[in-house]
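re: ur question from earlier - yeah i can do the single chain one, its not a big deal. heres the input i used so u can compare w yours
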Amino acid sequence: MNIFKIAILSTALAVTIPPLHAATLTIDAGLLTGAERVNVGGTFYDLSFVEGTFNDVFGTTPDFDATSYSEAVAFSQALFDQVFVGIYDDQPALTYGCSGTTAGCQASTPYELFSSNLVRRSGAQNTLPQHSSSQGLMSSLLITTDDSSDIDSQVWADWSVSADQTSVVPVPAAVWLFGSGLIGLAGFARRKKA
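and the output i got, formated as tokens:
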């Protein structure tokens, strides 16, 4: 293989290699049940979709991972961007806790107890293609005693800090391009001598 082909191949690889920090989806019998290493503001979290009442899932004195509206929106945006991907983006019935839905699935990240029976939450919603106008993020109050397992379109997003916080820093494409250019120049100079 000549030096020109090596330069072209290394450039193509540098451009097409996906980032190594993508979240890993947790799939059980075809259902999306959560994800590992979801990047939220530079910290990695593991996520599980859980059914039940707020009090059953988080307790009556919860320790929220998101403690403000803006943090909860960041969690929901990460869920929407990194977890509701591929077929799980527009097939909400494939998300654990929402298998009976006919429109969309709301995964709620709670962030504040509003009162003893209300909780503020931010949610990410994946929907069927025909309902795509309602896909995205939302915020509202939920009753802490409502059971998400009784609601086909509702599931709790239970976040925990990932044990592995190491971040793989990929080599930028510009470095690969520069390196392949140097190899090309070296090959050109070598040919010229011969």
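The first strand starts at residue 24 and ends at 28. not sure if urs matches, ping me
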